[in-house]
Specification:
Four copies of one chain form a homotetramer. The longest helix of chain A has 26 residues. In chain A, helix 3 packs parallel to helix 9 and helix 8 crosses helix 9. In chain A, 45% of the residues are buried. Chain A starts with a helix and ends with a helix. Helices cover 42% and strands 15% of the residues of chain A. Chain A has three domains: 190 residues, 2-Layer Sandwich (Gyrase A, domain 2), CATH 3.30.1360.170; 76 residues, no CATH class; 34 residues, no CATH class. Chain A is flat, with a radius of gyration of 24 Å. In chain A, the strands form two sheets. Chain A has a five-stranded antiparallel sheet with strand order 2-3-4-8-5. Chain A is built from eleven helices and nine strands. Chain A is of the alpha+beta class and 311 residues long. In chain A, strand 2 and strand 3 form a beta hairpin. The interface between A and D is large, with 56 and 54 residues.
């Protein structure tokens, strides 16, 4: 993730400038602005801009003329009520913009969330950086034997070493050939004057899916929280979860009351079907309910046992 | 549109506060923040918050680390290029939030633009204000005889007076009965302790469509410009066009380069079909083309003549 | 809601025609096509077209070449799994189109769901029908004293009679004046040749919010189920809930497996926060938890007691 | 693109079945249903389902009870009017669903259109096919020296041969190693019982971007036409343009009137700025306008000359 000296200078300059504004300012987020938070081996997340704060949620929920109540406690109560009852539109009134560097195979998963604005670095127009994601040894998981889209134990010893070697070699060789076919270097300067280069829009197809790309990504708070609830979840793939976790820290600094309500009512929340609630009621009434008489499938029964801590 | 003394105090307080921020600041827009711009007889538009500026458009088009070029001229050229070639995603990277007071029948037209975030004042929850739109006498247009959804001459004399009287009387009577059915006053205080009031969610149905409502409305720059290109256009209904015109002023202060490119390439632009372009080419080659030999329908021919200033 | 003889003939003709297609056909929905299901006093819902069925959900979840499994039971299991775990994209692969007649104040609530396609009857272009929603006497609810946006007891006797009279008189008078100002009758024929008529786009503002409008409304199955989960819920306003209930019947005929999964996992489902689950676990372990030691606010405690049937 | 015998049997079975429906049927599209149209070396597009036809556009524009006018000519005129004046909502009332096989680097460009529903084949869950896009020799373009995101001449001789060899070798080697790391074959059967396999969600990162993926993609007619106007355009990358061209044929069979209006008013259309129109008017009045006195930049002047056929 090391930025170049030029990039670091640009970041430092932006972070150091201060201009007065009449807009709401999120004091705890300001020092984080523009600073890359490292993620994976070469990736990062950094906040570029934001609009609104917790008071803006309250203000738009009330369609009021000023900035919410004087009593911070009333604001907290309202925000918790809105979150608990899924009144989502007031949370849409805050917006945040990130600059993110991430491996292409993760970018492909990420982009499925269609409610954000995106500008991605163009490999039709520019040369891609020589950076690939290679998992840390303790993240080199085997296929789960239980869950078709999950991970099992970590690969060990020779097997792990071999996989890492293959990943590294293939990504490097493909990138070298990409540069060779382009006939230009990473800064876009021509290499061999005697021959043409393959069009950038074609040469890029030789890169492997762990090559890093980057984009500007802008989203409102409601849709961001939805994204984070899915991607910071234990079922999400590790490589996207670490981005979601880094972003959670920025949300906490930006809108602490909304973050707290989200943590309480969404992150740890469980949705119980009518049948599941019926069984809980029978259990609370003292009945010893077992799966065969529960009316639930084995799979659902297992999910219920997990939820009530009996798994 | 007169705000109450309390509301004016809240606006003044918000406008007077200044806090330093590391975010981009649009200097010319800051003094306009929170200030209601009057529209129609009781309506207004006011900017509540914004994110980004012209440099943010450039920055995201380039997916760059800093704030665009040092050379302002290059930024202008790029923004004009993006606008001309309808590269819309960089303009999605700026966002603005308005508080708007407008008649319900205009709100119904407005809400058809689905790409914005909206929080409307709730008539299920609160009592509506006693404010109705009554057109100024010179805006009291007759139905156009040419265009089924257009306006013709202005109504005059007795006929105009009669219409104004009907609009005023009906709106007032319906509002009085609304309050009566609610059995509470405009501040929500109970009136007659002896009887119940009709539920607010029902009583509201007695109001006329010129009653004013209000909402917070947030949108990105690309979609705002699309909205404005339709609603500031001469074919838009006058009562929504005046809102669009007020908003154009805020856009001009916020992102002057994007505004200029929009004015040049979108507001006065004409889309010519392949057939129309073929006729223009024949005319430029000196041919005297007439409708019957043009291949265009009479209606399209009229549209072409207008576009080339021969109507 | 009575359609004219012409409209009924058009509906009958469309319903009677049969053409062979290679597309999936939802046998139980076909006989319902085009038939208006009456809602409220003059409204209706009718299915105009649909795309896909339960097998299409399975097919797109598997990105398969044919129409899902031979074993209907496997399809059911997969659909239930997708619904339970909120894998929503396969449900987006089915689409339905309705023609709906509804009061304007309900249309305003409805249109807040932005994920549908809509074409509304244009009052700028055409004359509105003389039809207003007047609640049935047993639906004439007083304002709730507990809940600012809820209903309480039903108004009785003279008070009820008076409200109904006001609603009826005001809507009728406003509509009469609308026609008068337009100077044309309900079919758009001119009335008094001596005078102009007010532009339709202006005259409409004199109508009351219980006037009926109509639209074509098209939405995918996932977003429809989200809409229905909110609007068929006991907390939704009665006047929109009856539309949602009518639509649930069409969903049941169209995609019975998806409907069943929705009924089981969404309609009766409860979302429990981490804190609430913690209390349930303590209760199941035999502890006698009370609100003061629960860590929940009184409001949340009440919500929990309701969920576990102790309210 | 050869489907397996099983897949071909499934396609044939679906295509051969016929069931009566009361819905609108697009007669010319029915025989195309389910049939893969080959694109590139291993890709295809096939129509899986559709909703509505030209008459449905008319019907929703009019919010009518029946299926549009009896006079086909009036329908044509209305559809052309709607297209010319960009009244887009009636075109949103038709929907189509495709199954598409395409290289990942093209899928990444394609997915930027956010208004469609998508289900992609999951490489977290399943093993990817051994299929890569290798350009035909006459499509092996050099980088344009004029346009940073365009193509120039075709590579020749040894240079071309070398590029093709690199593309083929790298894709094949990466895929072989992918299978090796997975420790399962293309059908998901285990290979070496002695060792674990890397999790599918990780192994996929070793694939090159020309590997084929596939998805179900569903979109309304308005947004499809917007997609096609961008992607069937001469400026679009060849590898996505061929998909757009194949889809245009399906649109022509599905909604011939809408297709014709689209071809006339959108595909060959030119948007002229107010300044450009001013120059055209001066030229039509006989003035010999040159770039220096035109007020246009050199680039815009060149664009204008192209539009009026003087380039």
């Amino acid at each position: 993730m090391p930025l170049t000296a030029d990039q670091m200078a640009e970041v430092a300059e932006a972070a150091a400038s201060r201009t007065p504004t009449a807009r709401p300012v999120a004091a705890a987020l300001e020092p984080m602005l523009f600073q890359p938070i490292p993620v994976l081996d070469h990736g990062f997340v950094r906040v570029i801009d934001y609009m609104g704060d917790d008071a803006a949620v309250v203000q738009s929920a009330r369609v009021s003329y000023g900035r919410g109540t004087k009593a911070a406690n009333e604001d907290r109560g309202l925000i918790r009520y809105l979150m608990r009852h899924r009144h989502s539109t007031p949370f849409e009134m805050c917006e945040i913009k990130y600059h993110i560097k991430l491996p292409i195979f993760i970018a492909r998963q990420w982009i499925r969330h269609r409610t954000a604005n995106v500008n991605e670095y163009s490999a039709r127009y520019s040369v891609m950086d020589r950076e690939f994601y290679i998992p840390a040894p303790d993240k080199l998981a085997a296929q789960s034997s239980m869950n078709r889209q999950g991970r099992g134990d970590t690969l060990q010893g020779e097997e792990a070493a071999r996989v890492l070697q293959l990943l590294r070699d293939d990504a490097t060789r493909c990138y070298d050939h990409y540069i060779d076919m382009l006939n230009e270097d990473e800064q876009g300067a021509p290499l061999d004057a005697e021959r043409s280069g393959l069009a950038r829009e074609l040469a890029r197809m030789n890169l492997t899916l762990n090559t890093y790309t980057q984009w500007y990504w802008k989203i409102d708070l409601h849709n961001l929280l939805h994204f984070l609830s899915l991607r910071a979840d234990a079922h999400a793939q590790y490589e996207i979860r670490v981005y979601a976790q880094a972003m959670l820290e920025t949300v906490k600094a930006w809108v602490p009351l909304s973050y707290e309500a989200f943590a309480d009512y969404r992150m740890g929340a469980v949705t119980m079907s009518a049948q599941m609630m019926g069984i809980v009621k029978r259990m609370l009434a003292g009945e010893d309910v077992q799966q065969p008489t529960s009316g639930l499938s084995k799979r659902e029964w297992r999910e219920l046992m997990e939820a009530i801590g009996r798994a």
